Amino acid sequence: MKTRISIQVASIAVVSALVLTAALTGCAKNPLEQLGDDAARKQVVDTLLANQAARREITSILLAAPADRAAILDRLLGDDAAKTEMARKILADDRGKALVVKEVTADDTSTKTFIRMLMTTGVMGTSLSQRQADALGYGDAYAFGNRRRTMSDLKRLGAVIDAWARSHEGHYPPCTNLDEVQDCLTRKLPPDTIASLRTADAWGAPFEYRSDREGSEYVLVSLATDGMSDGLGKIGPTEALDCDIVFSNGNFVQWPGSLRLEDIP
After folding, report:
1. Each residue of 124-153: pLDDT tens digit?
2. What whole-number distance in Å separates Cα of residue 191 and Cα of residue 173?
3. Which own/partner contact pairs does 234-237 have at CB distance under 8 Å and 24+ positions apart?
4. Where would you tag: which of 120, 174, 216, 232 has the fewest CB atoms within 10 A of its CB?
5. 28 lies in which domain range?
6. Are residues 71 and 85 in the same domain?
7. In the sheet that 236-238 helps form, which strands lie side by side, from edge to edge?
8. Distance between CA 206 and CA 168 in Å, rounded?
9. CA of 204: how far to CAs of 61, 120, 191, in Å?
10. Residue 211, SS3?
């Protein structure tokens, strides 16, 4: 059996062979010295890419040794930008999607772990009800993800309202009746300020907004899992899943006690 050589030695050997066969100009005693020249290096790279056998050889060397493969993967996965781009490309391709599905569904544990991960991020949204999630055994994860996403959306919408008030002598957009955000608030704010924001909670119900007559105070409300009003409570952290989530004057005044306010982006 051939002795496995390191990636560095193997690469040098292959590149050396390519340099010798690429008919590069110059008479350097060591062909590798020519790689310092941009034109010479480009010729080597182009020759390598055009030679399918040589390309397979390099790929085989790079991936053959477990230690080297681990180093390559660690380097890729340690770079958030590279990791994100790699995942995006994989999922953008039908073969990549099929591969992910195959791996996830390979065993029951993987499937459950993947579904739970989706639920805790809130991306499942209105795909099922809380009761259905409970029946499947994912009730806590589903509620956690939807509540966290809803709080994040309320906070972002509240930031727009607060910014508007700073340019209007501290007065918030006046809407004296508790109505859906689309019914009043969106007509008071410049359209471009909330065009990219969600105006409904993770369960699909529209956020509701109200201010006092003077515009000195406002509330943004999500009716949570049951879609029913609790009467604008402001009691701090709550325990029940159906308790409203309320954001007022830049802060949460009623929110799920299972979530830490500092963790909400």
Report:
1. 777 777 887 778 787 788 888 888 899 999
2. 14
3. none
4. 216
5. 7-77
6. no
7. 179-180, 208-211, 218-222, 245-248, 251-256, 236-238
8. 26
9. 52, 17, 21
10. strand
pLDDT per residue as tens digits for the range 152-199: 999 999 999 999 889 888 889 888 888 888 878 888 888 778 878 888
Is residue 164 domain-shared with residue 113, that is, in the same domain? no
pLDDT of residue 28: 47
Are 73 and 99 in the same domain?
no
- Per-residue HEC secondary structure of 36-71 comes to HCHHHHHHHHHHHHHCHHHHHHHHHHHHHCHHHHHH
Please report the sign of the dihedral spanned by the C-alpha atoms of residue 130, residue 235, residue 181, residue 147.
negative
Q: Which helix or strand (DSSP H or E) is residue 210 part of?
A: strand 208-211
CATH of the domain at 220: 3.30.700
Write down the pLDDT at residue 242: 81
Task: Specify whether the CB–CB gap between 202 and 142 falls below 8 A.
Answer: no
Q: Which residues contact residue 77 at a Cβ distance below 8 angstroms, ignoring those fewer than 6 apart?
A: 83
Evaluate whether residue 252 is within a structural domain. Answer: yes
The position carrying tokens 């050889």 is 57
In 10 A of CB 166, how many CB atoms?
9
Count structural domains, the chain.
3
Quote the DSSP letter at residue 176. -
Q: Read off the pTM.
A: 0.57
Which residues in 34-186 belong to E strands, given as ranges?
Answer: 179-180
